[in-house]
Predict the structure.
Amino acid sequence: MTDLLDRLRDVVGDDHVLTAADDVAAYVVDWTGVHAGAALAVVRPGSTDEVAAVVAACHEAGAPVVPQGGNTGLVAGGVPDASGSQVVLSLGRMRTVRDVDPVAGTITVDAGVVLADVQAAAERAGRLFPMSLGSEGSCTIGGNLATNAGGTAVLRYGMTRELVLGLEVVLPDGRVWDGLRGLRKDNTGYDLTQLFVGSEGTLGVITGAVLRLFPATTRHATAWVAVPGVAAAVALLGLAQERAGAHLSTFEIANRQALELVLAHLPGASDPLAEPSDWYVLVELAGTATDDGLDDSLEAILGDAVEADLAIDAAVASSPARRSALWALREGISEAQKVEGATLKQDVTLPIARLADWVDEIGPRVAAALPGVRPVTYGHVGDGNLHYNLSAPASSPASTEGRDGDADLRAAAAHLSTAIYDSVAAANGSISAEHGLGRAKAAAAASYKSEVEVDLMRAVKRALDPDGLMNPGALLPPP
Ligand code: FAD
Ligand code: S2G
Ligand code: ZN
């Protein structure tokens, strides 16, 4: 393999082929700290041509490749396995915004551009790139496309696959597919762009993308609402959709345990309401400069919601600073939960009408399996997507490395996951709403799919990556 490493150094330069343990450490452990692997090397190409040369060299040497963007993925898809045979190909140096066309409503970027930088480039051009995730300061567009990421704007703008018009991809044999046409209408064969979106690095390396831009939303009406429960939240969603129509851009839920984590660990966070509630909703209407009735619309919705016992109380943002403070209560949950130690994350979708019953049904089953475990529940209820993330009991002593109850949580993880997956499948939901499968959920997902569906996915994988070198073990379990 030294020949391969020498070839890779010839392609990207010595400084961008990392092999020393300290140099590769940040690339082989995922954001949760739970999934750690070993790499033959970490390679950091600076252009599509260099990516193509790196992939071709690995293909000839029979070395598996794990594409990596910002390494914020949550299902162990962007870090290598423990074999030490895989080359991590980091897109982190490919950060060029290639073109912005406000009239066509497109922005063309390298895969390594961080999501927040795409948002900023769109804003400078007087437009909006709507995707928004809590990880937007470090996740990359390549990773967003590869995982078909969701986030808080899906309700109005859709998943990543609805935000992309074309891709540039380095195929497993090193050839480059240039699909960066960016046309709204192009009915000339299979939709290859959509095939690569959500493929999690298993079909090729995304090196560039043409993304859609939308009218900038400069007007916002935002509220943090105490609601009696999930059923009330779902009914309030219906009321807001009916009244606000396309202006409804955010509808997120969080339970009291989620808020308490943020209040405990997010500096400056404070509860905007006088009385505690079991459940909360963050709701936001957004519009352009001419939409000047949003505040009245939101006030009317909230007033009718209180009348109908769908809402208990609400804090409406009176300034951009207050708006940011309300958003921080939602966006801060992930980081806050991480402070308290191990988290068993479940990112599930349920039919919206089944959400309330599912939460009521799964709670006692989880509590029976691990008494005192905390079902920190939050997420994109407008999409039917809950983050049902379990933490160790609050009673278990906390230390800098987490809580004593973490070991019990980890020991019960497989049993708890199966109980949760079985109940989601029984409700015709999905065991991965937006985070993808990676290595962590590949086997579980396949077990809930029909043989035909798994065969079809394996046929696609064989057609594009016959040697099985692209991110082996991710998305599909080994055959
Ligand atoms: P990585 O973690 O580097 O990789 C993720 C996957 O994509 C891997 O399988 C990798 O092989 C593949 N990949 C990466 N780059 C490429 C490429 N150029 N070509 C081919 N394959 C590639 N996710 C959501 O959907 N919604 C959320 O609301 C959300 N919130 C989050 C909040 C926090 C605090 C954190 C830590 C994560 C959150 N995530 C969320 C998960 C994560 O941010 C997303 O999955 C994101 O899309 C990953 O991007 P990344 O660049 O970090 O990818
Ligand atoms: C979110 C973040 C990931 C997690 O905040 O919407 O997708 O479960 C999640 O911590
Ligand atoms: Zn999410």
